[in-house]
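ARCHIVE ENTRY
Sequence with per-residue tokens
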Amino acid sequence: MEAEFEITDLGRLSYFLGMEFTYTAVGMIVHQKKYAGEILKRFNMISCNAVMSPIEVNLRLARDESGDAVDETKFKRIIGSLRYLCNSRPDLDYSVGLVSRFMSNPKKLHMLATKRLLRYIQGTTDYGILFPIRQQKSELEVVGS
């Protein structure tokens, strides 16, 4: 490609579109620690207490026409931020998908579930995806850490 195009080697990839790349002896880790911190600051959850799971066990969310309404714009901003964070955090996919079903008419119960997600992120900002170095010719495995 260098013969056809002017190319500059910038070295190893370390940060791109909010995704951070850390190289270790066992492989490359893709994470969004900085972005997760920015989300917590943006929504005033930086000093919240962390929880061990992204959503309560057996939580049933449903459309609640009689519940207290919350700021729909703020709810959509939180969900959008969480959706982007899912790029390096597959542990959030189910929970974010669950709460995002109620973006058109969010109620207090939906916002509480979303804030629990933010509390989970508070305790797990170091999580990411490990792409291990292949020692032998074998199938590629993706391991979350």
About this structure: The chain has a mean pLDDT of 89.
